[in-house]
């Protein structure tokens, strides 16, 4: 009977200690993640071993993102001047081309609207083309063209609320698409 009492005692102790251990492990994982808060995503492509999307932290600069993607050849410098230390923005893309002399030419490009929507990155109404607007739910090529024309006729930029002034966009359609911006 003493043997059964020990087994029961061990089972009770395990039942009490396992949840405490799991909670401690989760707290440690959460603390580690808190040190690296993700502010969005950037894409790195071109002459890199691992092209793709990378998490954007508060102070991520161009050179750091390129290093994460591993350049195919050693880099001596980046062009244009100041590109290496430039802070990246959510939804931005970097295309790297490495020359024979080791210079890395960097081009900054916004991600297409379809990718931004997929990643939950807000769209910029003032940089979108008709094809980008066409990807929004309830907006076809005709209304997309009207949005671009409205923007061009009103100084080349517009506020989100101005979509209501575009023919074919009523309250219901506006409410459906405004969450993407």
Tally the helices: what do you get? 6
Helical percentage? 40-55%
What Rg do the Cα atoms give? 25 Å
How many β strands by DSSP? 5
Q: Which structural category fits the helices and strands?
A: alpha/beta
Measured distance between first and last alpha carbons: 70 Å
Largest sheet: 5 strands, mixed
Mean pLDDT: 85
Unreliable segments of 5+ consecutive residues: 21-35
Count of all domains: 3
**Shape designation:** flat
With strands numbered from the N-terminus, the spatial order across the biggest sheet is 2-1-4-5-3
GO cellular component, one term: type II protein secretion system complex
GO molecular function: DNA binding
Protein name: Helix-hairpin-helix domain-containing protein
Organism: Oryzomonas rubra
Q: Helices, strands, pairings?
A:
Layout: H1 2-34, E1 40-46, E2 52-56, H2 62-69, E3 77-79, E4 92-98, E5 103-110, H3 113-119, H4 130-134, H5 141-153, H6 171-177
Parallel strand pairs: 1-4, 3-5
Antiparallel strand pairs: 1-2, 4-5
What can you tell me about this protein's structure?
GO terms for molecular function: DNA binding. The protein has about 180 residues and is of the alpha/beta class. The protein has 6 helices and 5 strands, in the order αββαβββαααα. A 5-stranded mixed beta sheet has the order 2-1-4-5-3, with helices on one face. About 20% of the residues are buried.
């Amino acid at each position: 009977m003493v043997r059964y009492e020990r087994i029961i005692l061990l089972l009770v102790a395990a039942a009490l200690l396992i949840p405490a251990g799991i909670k401690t492990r989760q707290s440690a994982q959460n603390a580690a993640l808190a040190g690296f808060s993700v502010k969005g995503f950037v894409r790195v492509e071109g002459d890199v071993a691992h092209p793709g999307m990378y998490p954007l932290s508060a102070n991520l600069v161009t050179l750091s993102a390129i290093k994460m993607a591993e350049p195919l050849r050693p880099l001596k410098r980046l062009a244009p001047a100041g590109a290496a230390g430039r802070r990246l923005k959510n939804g931005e893309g970097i295309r790297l081309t490495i020359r024979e002399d080791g210079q890395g030419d960097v081009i900054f490009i916004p991600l297409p609207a379809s990718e931004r929507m997929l990643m939950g990155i807000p769209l910029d109404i003032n940089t979108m083309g008709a094809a980008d607007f066409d990807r929004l739910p309830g907006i076809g090529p005709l209304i997309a063209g009207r949005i671009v024309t409205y923007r061009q006729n009103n100084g080349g930029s517009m506020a989100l609320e101005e979509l209501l002034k575009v023919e074919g966009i009523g309250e219901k359609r506006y409410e459906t698409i405004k969450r993407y911006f």
